[in-house]
Each structure stands twice: as structure tokens, then as C-alpha cells.
Amino acid sequence: MSKFMEKTEDVVRRCKTLGADEAIARTVNSCNHQVRFSNNQIDTSLVWNSYVTDVVLSWNKRVVATQIANFQNTDQILKHLFKLAKVSQENPMYGGFATGRFNYRKSTGDGSLVNLENPAEYVFEAIDAAKDEAGPETNAGGIFLASASNVYQISSEGPEGEDVRSSVELSIRAFTEKEASGHGVECSSKLKGFEPRRAGRKAGQIAKHAKNPKPGEEGKYDVVFDPLFVGSLLGMWGSMASAYSVMVQLSIFVDNLGKKVASEMVTMRDVPAPYSMSERVFDDEGVPTRENVIIENGVLKTYLHNTSTAKIFKTTTTGNAGIVAPGPWNIEMDAGAMSKEELFKQVRHGLYLTNTWYTRFQNYKSGDFSTIPRDGIFQIENGEIKQSLKDIRLSDNALRMLNNITGISRERQHVHWWAEADPPSLSPFILMKDVQITTSR
Amino acid sequence: MNKDLVDFALKCANEKQVDYAEIRAHNEKSDDLTMKNGVVDAYVSAVDAGFGVRVLAEGGIGFASSNKWTHSEAKSVVDIAYRLARAAKRTDKIVFAKEKSVQTSWKAVEKEKIEDVSAERRIATFEGLDRELISQGVDVPGRMFRFGTTLTEKYFVNTEGSVISSFVPKLGAYAFITVAEGGKSEQAYKQFGYSGGWEALDEWKITEQMIDEAKMLQGVIKEATAVRPGKMDLVCGSEVTGIAAHESCGHPMEADRILGREMSQAGMSFVYPNGPFWIGAKVGSSIVNVIDDPTLKCSYGYYEYDDEGVKARPRILFREGFINEFLQNRESASKMKTRSNGSSRSTGYDREAIVRMANTFVQPGNYDEEEIFEQVNHGVYMKSFTEWNIDDKRFNQRYVGREAYLIEKGELKGRIARPVIETTTPTFWGAVDAVSKKLEFDAATCGKGDPQQGIPVYTGGPIMRLRGVYIK
User: Fold this and answer.
1) pLDDT-derived band of residue A50, with 50, 70 and 90 as boundaries?
2) Cβ neighbours, 10 Å, residue B131
């Protein structure tokens, strides 16, 4: 057992000695290296390291948590925590932490990401690629972020394991004019195969075509969504599959289990797969993570659970804990039968939307919301990308949109962007009918 | 907090060829509870302490941080920040606008100390809220409350001789409810925030406010009708005035955004060099004055010195309808050949400080509220909002009414269901023809930065009347 595991186990032992019914401790040793750039130059480079142990314990169905960073005060911190448990309120819905011993698949995380010699090189590769596509006057900005964590987790109820979690991403937005831009991302769990130029090329290609945009017009359109935009939509739908979201009515999936919620061509999964930025081999209770089919051929198959929410819904955990709220790790939409080109050919008069931001709801349960397309917005005429547009808003309904999907591409991309396309996803191009577009007056 | 270690880190930085260096240490004690449908999900209590080092060297900026409080770690973190700064290899070198050094300490005053309030009392407060809320004859099937306190001690030193200590206690609450009636539902959330002590709870009146919200939402489901779309007058409640001030005035006036430093995330601004809008350009009617003021005691965005050690002051962003001043930190101010106005904020020791708002509001005018309504022949009173958003140049915005009423011949008539204003920044601010005397604030968490730095702010204003805008 490593010294980190021993330290983590010691925390759990001390919690039990104090009288806790159950305890989980998770020590995370992490290193993050970010380069931020704009106007084709590096603005700042940042490194933030941390070493903490998260502790959660239960006593008579009271759940309390803390974080230990200063290990000289561990006893004092845990005594305070246990005192809190004694005065906290019983949670009748608390169903305990997961029990049992598990064999985890081998972690494939890339620990070498903490030792990058010169991450600025990745940034300049991406900028150069954008310029190659869109011209030397192209103005680009974005971030490069590499993160790696060693995770040591022990539960008094049996689960214990080690994991290496790593991610690397480059996000670049290129401008060819003040109101003509394109956005590209390159995302991975490992450095191998990581190609920042791909992101730069995509941003440059879109920015080149986005020149001279005209104001868009209100109406209902057939829309082809780029994988980056689909990443935002999958994040929205995926978070609504959390049982916690369902319980507090923050979801279009309330009372919809087993019912048709999407077009029959839609199958959506949560898969913390080795390629994914959020790859992990166990969840926050120590349950092995796994593939969960959320929507299969348009039918809602499951919510995402931890042990407590699973008991409330009379099922078993899906390996998506969060102690308080379960959530998705990495959402995949199954590939469709058509190529990207075939998808575009389906559209006689419509739009191609490449990215979005600022998604806000009127009512999460009914699904009424709006979001603002940004970067390349294009009119499609007879399957061809034509005029660049600007100043439109997508004002529609999250449930209706799921049902209006009429095409899914074979090509898929692993995408993540800031807080907008989050959590990471494996996203295809999708075609959707009757998408409501509004504009300012 | 081990200030000696922070001073040691500064000494390490001073021994290098830096143009500038600062060490910012935070010690943050937080207590948070989450309650779902009347049950406490978890109570989290933690202390997070660490220090961040920012170095300006050879025209580049490097930042590194750690939560390990050892001399070797401090030295290593300084080394990393210095190396990162030099690696930037910028063609145009970054310099910081000049500032005087400051030696001071300041704190937010607590009338009733947060630390003296037990966990039992905190839990009982929100249990009581939940109990009251569900005993009003309104079906509220979804109730989520989050409540947290943070006690933040900061220690800031830089190579120019500044030494600033501060202590700011903050309280924040978030309430989200779903009201059901006859198979339909409406939702509302409200946020509360305060810098100071437990007396915040008396000021918030959170139970009364959430009961009013629940009853109002029931009324919307039962009574509200759609507005007939068209041009009409719009009276904005202070909550709507405040969000508009924040989104379409505060954000586009952020100098780092104008310069492109947030270009790939939060975006840029309709204000840019040699564009149609710059300082002195008209963007609203002559009675529109929008201010961002960090110095409001007890406000959620309160501070006396920013995270670069610059003295805070009110900033007049729009003056009589004209763009007047941008929000600046030392980096942006230098690029624009001006001085910082103390707008640099960070959410933690491990995040760089960037240009942020504090408390952004429309300055009150001369009208009584009654006068504002009396002079409306046909219009909508949008008292509060639900869905809202704005594009990343801060030009095209949309606010959807949560509580709204039809106004006919100066009288409030029936409830209106989710009226929408979707318009541009100049159209919105240019239509304002009356502003009331009474100033009110709402708490919010403003998002910006990568990684996201959700920062406490107030949005606010009086009641404001817009003439002849399109409502649907």
C-alpha cells in the first residue's frame, strides 16, 4: 500500500474510531498547467497544484463532509466534523454508501501530463494552423490546459482503489473580422494522439467562411449542429438525467422513465471511456464506473444514480456518485448512418450552427429555454453552406428538440469547452427539424 | 495564516530579475448546507488555505499556486511562476499601470459573528423556511436551498512595498422552487448575498420572499395570459433593471474583454478601438447613469482594495447615456494608457485576478413609482425575470418575465405569462424615459474566467420605464 493510501486509510480509521457509521476518504494529488492566449500571444501561464483529502462520513443518517489540506490538524478537523454530524439533521432519504469489494479495470490516465516541457508550443501550433486556413491577419485566442491527478480512495464499507485521472485540451477561437469567428477544440485524456493543429484548422476554416455576416431572420429552420454545439446540448440533456435533477424538478425527464423522450434514432450513453477527459475507474463511493444507456432508440431507460438515489427509485447505483448528487461523466450520442456531407444534403433551406453559449431556462421541467449561437452561423441552401449570419438566438424546448432530431452523422468528435460544452462528450453532427430562431427587435 | 512564509516567498521573488511580483494568500473557512425537499443532503465544513504567486518578467506573466505551506514549496512556486513568465516570449511586452504602494488592513464588519452561529441554528433556519413554504396551500413539489458562509482572510504583498491584510465574512443563499397546479408548473430561483454577519438573515427576509414567490407562481399558472405582441411601454422592476445593468453595461465595459483577453470564452464587447462605440459614445437616453461600486458596505461585492492592492472606488460606466469609463486592472490600464480603477478580483489563491464587476446598478432618478405607472397607456410591468441571456459582444439580450402584469391607462391589470423583451443594448437603454427614486439590490454570482471564477456581485437599480419597445 502506498503512503498516500495509508494516509487515506488512516483518516477513515479515525472517523470510525470517533463513532462514524460510515466514512469515505479520497486523497487527490493534482497538478494543472494552463496557458491562456489572445491576440496570437500568450497572456499568462499558470500552474496550480493541490494536495487534499476529502472526507465524508455518516452517523445516524446524517451526512457531513470536509476537506483536509493541513494534516497537522487532522484529529481536530475530524472531531469537529463528527460533532457536526451529531447536530445535523437526519436525512431519511440517505441510503448509505456503496458496500463491497470491487476489482477495477486498470486506469489508463497519463501521469506524464504533469511534466510538460513547453506547453506554449501546442498553442503556437494551433494559432499557426488557424492562420494557415484563414490567413495571416487571423486573430486567435484560447486556452491550453493539461491536468493530472493521482486519486487514492478508501471507504469503510469496502471499496478501495487508486486511479490516475488526466486530461488535456486546447480550445481556440479565431477571428477573421470583428464579427467573424470560428471555434475549434482538441480534447483527450492523454497526450498521445493529441493534435492542437486540428483545433486551429477547424477554427480557421469556420472563421474564413464566417466573413461578412448578415443579420439572421426569425423563423423555424432545419438545422445542422456541429459536434461542438451538440456537446452543449448533450451536457444539457445528460445533466437532466441525474436522479438528483429529477428529484428537484430540474429536468425534462421527470416521470418519463420507460417513455419515448426522443427521436427513435437517438441513443445516448454515459461512458467514462479511456479516451475521455473524464475517464475514471470508480465513482465517489468507490463503485466501478460503467457504460449506462440513458436513452435507447428514443426511450428513456435510466436515470443516473448514486446508492442513495438508487434506493429511492428502487434500483441500483449506476456508478455515477457524487455523494449528494449523481451526474454524468462523459456523454456519447451513438453514431448515425449518414456521413456529414449526406446530412447537409438533406437540408433544402436551413442553418448550420457551429457553437453556442449562455443557455438559460424558463422552466427546466417543461424544457423551455434559449441559447445564443456564436462563431460560424451559416445559411444552408440545397445542401450547400452559403451566407454567413449573425445576431440570432435559438429559443426552443429541450424535449421537443430531442424529438425533432432527423439525422445523425457517422463522424463523431470528443469535445469539451469551458463551462458551455460540459461534461465532455462524444458528439456527432446532428440534423434537427423545426428549430425556432428569434432575433432582437 | 503564516504571513512569514508569504513574506519569504516575496523575498524569493525579489531575488530574481522580476519587473513585478506579488504573493496573495487566502485562508477561507467555509460552511455549506444543501437542503432538498425539506431534508439536509449534506453539511460541508472546510478550510482552504494557500498562496498564489504572480510574476511579471521579460514582459510575460507567470502564475503558480500551492496549498502546501512550507518554505521549500514557497521557493518552488516562485521559481515556477518566474519560469512561466519568461517563457511567454511576447513581442509586445506586458507592463502594469503605475500604482502607489499601500500598507493597510481592512475588514467587513459583522454585527452578529458568523462563527458564533451554530450548525443547528443554520439548519433550523432553513428547516423553518421549508416548513413555512409548504404550509401556504401552494403545491411546491421541488424545493432546493443552498446556504453557505465563508470567512476569508487575505494577505497581499508585492515587490512595490504593498502589504494589505483583510478579512471578509460573506453569506450566500440560493433558493429554487417548482410550483405545480392543475398539471402545470412554474419555477423560480432567488439568490441572497451579504458581506458581514448573521444579521443578513434579518435583512433578507428569505422566508417571506419565497412564500411570496410560491404564491405568485401559483397565480401565474392560474391566471396569467399571453401578451399580444407589439410595441408598447415596458416598466422594469429593480431586478430586471439590475440584470440589464450587469449584462449590457457592466460586462461590455470590462477593459480586458474589450482588449480581447477573454475572446475565446466570455467573448469580447460591442465596444472596441476605432469602433462605433467608445468612451464618449451615446448608448442610452440622457437619464441613464450606471455605476459599479465595490465600496458599498455589506454588499455581496464589497471590497476596499482589489486583488492587485489597488484602492477601490465607484466607477461611472454610463453617464447621462454616454459611455464614461471602463473597468480596469493594472494590465488593461497600461494598455489603454490610463490608471487601474481597482477592478481586479480573484475567487481564490489558485486563480489569477482578472477584471470584474462588484455592485452594478442604475442610479436612481426623480420619479415616484406611481408616476411611472400613471403615464403608461398600454404596456407591461416586468417585475422579475426568469430566462435571460446576452450574446458575447453584449449587444443582443433577452429577458423573460417571471412576475409580470399588463398596464392599461396607468393601472396594473391581469398577470402576463412570461413576456419577452429581446432587443439590442442601444435600443434598451435608449428607450429609458423615467427612473424611480428607490434603489434596490439583488445578489448574483457573476461568471467569467477559465477556469470559471464565479464571483459575488450585486445587481440593482430602481424601477425604470422604457417607451415603445417590442414585447412578445
Assistant:
1) confident
2) 11
- In this complex, is the C-beta atom of B167 within 8 Å of any C-beta atom belonging to chain A? no
Tell me the three cell numbers of residue A307. Answer: 446508492
DSSP H helices, A196-353, are: 196-209, 227-240, 243-247, 307-312, 340-345
Looking at the predicted structure, is the pLDDT value of residue A117 above 90?
Answer: no
What count of other Cβ atoms lies within 10 Å of the Cβ of residue B257? Answer: 28
Minimum mean pLDDT among A72-81, A248-257, B350-359, B392-401: which range? A72-81
Helix (H, G, I), strand (E, B) or coil at A212: coil
Beta carbons of A374 and B176 less than 8 Å apart: no
Residues 6 or more apart from B121 whose CB is under 8 A from it?
Answer: none
- Indicate the pTM of the whole model: 0.97
Per-residue exposure over B305-327, b if at least 16 CB sit within 10 Å of its own CB, e if not: bbbbbbbbebbebbbebbbbbbb
Contacts of B124 (CB under 8 A, 6+ apart): none
CB pair distance less than 8 Å for A248 and B447: no
Measuring CA to CA, which residue among B429, B361, B359 is closest to residue B394? B429
Q: How many CB atoms lie within 10 A of CB B128?
A: 12
Flag whether pLDDT at B195 surpasses 90.
yes
Mean of the per-residue pLDDT values of chain A = 96
Enclosing H/E stretch for B87: helix B71-87
Is the pLDDT at A70 greater than 80? The verdict is no
Q: Cis before residue B451, ω within 30 degrees of 0? A: yes
Helix extents (H) in A241-389: 243-247, 307-312, 340-345
Q: Which residue of A has its CA nearest to B468?
A: A441
Residues of chain A with pLDDT > 70, as a percent, come to: 100
- Which among B264, B391, B402 is the top mutation candidate for probing chain A, defined by the most A β-carbons within 10 Å of its own β-carbon? B264
Tens of pLDDT, residues A373-426? 999 999 999 999 999 999 999 999 999 999 999 999 999 999 999 999 999 999
Residues 106-135 of B with CB under 8 A from A: 118-120, 123, 127
Three cell numbers, residue A13: 480509521
What would the DSSP string read from start to end of A9-62?
HHHHHHHHHHT-SEEEEEEEEEEEEEEEEETTEEEEEEEEEEEEEEEEEEETTE
CB atoms within 10 A of CB B296: 19
User: Nearest-CA residue of chain A relative to B257?
Assistant: A38
Of A255, A93, A365, A237, residue with least CA distance to B179: A365
Q: What is the DSSP letter of B311?
A: B
Nearest by CB to residue B45, choosing from A66, A324, A358, is A66
CB contact under 8 A, A47 and B450: no
Instruction: For residue range B100-139, list pLDDT tens digits in order.
Output: 999 999 999 999 999 999 999 999 999 999 999 999 999 9
